Amino acid sequence: MTASASVRVMTPEEIAARGGGETAFLHPPQRATLFAERAMRLRQLARGHAMGDYLQFMAELAQAQQARLADFPAVPLPDADALERAFGLGRPPLPAADWPRDPVWHGVAKVIAADLQRSAPAGAKAALEAIATAGGDWLERQADCLLTGVMQGLDLATAPIVAAALQVYWTHMASALLARPNERGAPFGRTDDETACPCCGSRPTASITRSSGESLGQRYLHCSLCGMQWHMVRIKCPNCLSTKSLAYHSLDAAGSSEEGGSRAAGAALQAETCDDCHGYLKIMHSDRDPFVEPVADDLASVTLDLLVSEAGYQRHGVNLMLLFGAPEAPPDPGGP
Ligand SMILES: [Zn+2]
Ligand SMILES: [Zn+2]
User: Fold this and answer.
1) What domains appear along the chain, each with residue ranges and CATH number?
2) Which ligand is nearest to the CA of 196?
3) On the chain, which terminus has fewer CB atoms closer than 10 Å, C or N?
């Protein structure tokens, strides 16, 4: 890891000494702005970036997602009994892998693909056309692959559009559920697996430290599917929960000079590595850059992934817009 500097995490005592009052467990997705802010950040990151055209296209995709979320049709949600049952079992109420999906999301995917036709680069047109003509069963099979992390049978070319529609669907359900009055105050809370989203059970894309209010300096994991953010103390590895071997790496510092080291420690985006599970998750600091956005900044920092994976760490974060892997012969989108 020659081009990065590594910085030890604060000890538990140091962090406890800085602790304040109660920390909110959840920061729900902001329905009115979630995807629009992502689009804005992607456009900002695209300027002068080696992957500028790609990031610009992803910005158009996020903008199309915001438009779909704004007028999402009513869909079934878990009722009070189902919420109580999930809560009792320590499970999320809208599990990505098991929730019976309403086919309304197929139409969302098709409208997103149609919205992108004008701005899409030539290389993406075929994928958009494939979504336009895709049958419901094929879309459902693609969704199964995406939501259960199975790469075999997944068509990588259309996956970002399918994923975009599923993100809109789950973000809609999460915010609709939170907006509904509930006896307990919140429709869901902590589950048995603190490394997975308490709303849908998905893995995080990255974590983000917040820079305002009661959550100042606290770290939240950002769900790759529904956009929910849940609190996890910074001393724990977000993958294996170990508190022993966390370190931070960034692209900001070259060499091991003192100046380089302090720049790395102050970087807005770092990879948090764990020597117990050999995994890593990116961490973004909104006090250092107020515009960091987990999905956008993750897409724009693939170089950091290469650097950290060369050092032997495995990516723990999931970004549905950028999947790694080579599926075997993808099925025909127009098929049965
Ligand atoms: Zn979620
Ligand atoms: Zn770990």
Assistant:
1) 6-16+191-315 (3.90.1670.10), 30-179 (3.90.1670.10)
2) 1
3) C
